[in-house]
């Protein structure tokens, strides 16, 4: 396996394992063994989005899943998604899911907006989901 592919695998695994923690580009770069500038360029070239955007979308997707599949409060879920206030979480959630977290919960079914990227063959698979 070439070193770029292995680095991407490490990056994706690290991000998934730390979605409910503070993840910064320096940490991701250390895992990959490259500079933060190179990692950001490499990730964007392979996926079509920045590491920051990918993390944000994965966190919001997990939050949407928790809204439907758990009894956790919206405040708890917003904190787990990395938001310091429920208002910030609601604004971000609404911009992606086009409804409030409460309305999404009442709707009762989960639609992922950002699947986990996985390495297959020579490229990256996964991406933005479509609203139902």
State the gist of this model.
With 132 residues, the protein is mainly α.
Descriptive tags:
mainly alpha; Arc Repressor Mutant, subunit A; two-stranded antiparallel ribbon; 7 helices; disordered C terminus
Order of helices and strands: HHHHHHHEE
Q: What is the C-level CATH assignment?
A: Mainly Alpha
Architecture (CATH level 2) name: Orthogonal Bundle
* Oligomeric state of the chains in view: single chain
Helix content: 55-70%
Classify the beta-strand content into a percent band: under 5%
Number of strands: 2
Strand order of the largest sheet: 1-2
The tally of structural domains comes to 1
Structural class: mainly alpha
Overall mean pLDDT stands at 87
**CATH homologous superfamily name?**
Homeodomain-like
Shape: elongated
- The CATH topology: Arc Repressor Mutant, subunit A
Stretches with pLDDT under 50, minimum 5 residues: 128-132
Tally the helices: what do you get?
7
CA distance, first residue to last residue: 37 Å
The biggest beta sheet is recorded as: 2 strands, antiparallel
Structure description:
It is a single chain. 24% of the residues are buried. The protein is built from 7 helices and 2 strands. 61% of the residues lie in helices and 5% in strands. With 132 residues, it is mainly alpha-helical. It has a two-stranded antiparallel sheet. It has one domain (3-123): Arc Repressor Mutant, subunit A, CATH 1.10.10. It has helices at residues 3-17, 25-32, 36-47, 51-69, 74-80, 86-97, 101-107, and strands at residues 118-120, 123-125.
């Amino acid at each position: 396996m070439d070193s770029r592919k292995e680095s991407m695998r490490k990056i994706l695994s690290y991000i998934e394992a730390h979605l409910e923690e503070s993840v910064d580009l320096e940490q991701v770069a250390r895992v990959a063994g490259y500079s933060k500038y190179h990692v950001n360029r490499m990730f964007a070239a392979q996926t079509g989005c920045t590491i920051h955007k990918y993390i944000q979308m994965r966190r919001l997707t997990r939050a949407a899943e928790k809204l439907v599949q758990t009894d956790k409060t919206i405040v708890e879920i917003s904190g787990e998604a990395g938001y310091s206030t429920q208002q910030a979480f609601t604004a971000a959630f609404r911009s992606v899911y086009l409804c409030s977290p409460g309305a999404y919960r009442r709707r009762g079914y989960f639609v992922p907006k950002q699947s986990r990227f996985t390495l297959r063959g020579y490229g990256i698979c996964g991406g933005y989901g479509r609203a139902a």
